[in-house]
Amino acid sequence: MALLLTGCGTSVAPASPGAGAAAAVTLENCGRKAVVSDAPKAAVGMHPAQTELLLRLGLAGRIAGQAQAKAQALPEDVAPLAANIPVIGGVTPPSREDLLAVKPDFVYSPTTYEFTAEQGFASIEQLEQAGVSVYVANGGCKDRRMTGEVTDLFTDLENIGKIFGVDDAAAGLIAKSRAELDKVAKALAGVKRLRVAQVYVDGTTLQAIGAGVEYDILRLAGADNVYTPEQPAFAKFFAATITPESLAAERPDALVFSVYDDKHEAATRKYLTTTFPDMPAVLDDRLIAVSSADVFPGTLGNVSIVRQIAERLYPDAF
Fold first, then answer.
1. What is the pLDDT of residues 39-92, one digit of tens each?
2. N or C: lower Cβ tally within 10 Å for the chain?
3. How far from the centroid of its chain's Cα atoms is residue 293's Cα?
4. What confidence tens digit (pLDDT) does each residue in 166-183 have?
5. For residues 110 and 296, what is the distance between their CA atoms, to the nearest angstrom?
């Protein structure tokens, strides 16, 4: 879950408690048809990233619950809007009973993991049988985990806009996000690209990230990725365990690593600096920590993190 795992400082649309789609909406979502018969009035964001998007679309009055709220803090500008929204689950998805207790009519999830019945969560089929519509972030679909892109978020925004009848607010968020990505691309035009490896450290276990939205984030940030989807190690999964010797041999100019809290960041920095003291990334102080929440599928963090990494890699370009 940590490898799968705050938003960017964008505006919040005016509250729209009554507006809604005039007709049923049917969408292709993760290989299934998602049918929403009417604009939801009791939605649940299954991760803070999804709760944030609903809040920014002006839908605070139509949120019945916020799940996994302890996994990530909401941005300061939208957190007050969620103050009275019931919290279900802590750092993990809620149980089937806890989710159904808030009587949702719509559930918006970052991945399909949140519907693993074997873990005690409500499956998509169980929710649909209970009359609850389900939407999974496009980048969180199983068939997109290896090929996900930052712009998958825009598909989600368009779809959520249709479902809730807030198309204009969704279009506004998309426009601002596209403009942010365009600014980064313009700033990076002509730069000499640095070789960058993305890794994840858990104790002394070292993993390389070479596919999925993580790869696309580095690409948009101007990196020459050390690890790519074309390499055999990432043919079936976006991460692969590697040896320190293999990473040292690549001599990357920068290392990007995701962390879930300050303690994890400190431990990861200590491991990287002591294990690779002669690596260019360490010598040039290009150890770039990013929040694990920002590489989670379907989050505005996917956009803001592109600029964050690009500014660390090429400070003179900004």
1. 999 999 999 999 999 999 999 999 999 999 988 889 999 999 999 999 998 889
2. C
3. 6
4. 999 999 999 999 999 999
5. 7
Locate tokens 């260019």: which residue?
A: 280
DSSP 114: G
Amino acid at 203: G
User: Is-contact 134 100, C-beta < 8 A?
Assistant: no
Domain 25-136, second-level architecture: 3-Layer(aba) Sandwich (3.40)
The residues of the chain that CATH labels 3.40.50.1980 are: 25-136, 187-317
Phi, psi values for residue 134, rounded to 5°: -130, 135
Contact predicate 255/286, CB 8 Å: yes
Check if the beta carbon of residue 138 is closer than 8 Å to that of residue 231: no
The Cα 221–Cα 198 span in angstroms is 12
| 249-267 exposure pattern, b = at least 16 Cβ within 10 A, e = fewer | eeebbbbbbbbbeeebbee
Distance CA 13, CA 56 (A): 6
The whole-angstrom separation of Cα 166 and Cα 255 is 40
What is the rounded (10 degree) CA torsion for 117, 123, 129, 131?
A: 140
Q: Tell whether domain 187-317 is in CATH 3.40.50.1980.
A: yes
What are the CA-CA distances from residue 149 to residues 165, 179, 203, 229, 238 (Å)?
A: 25, 16, 29, 13, 13
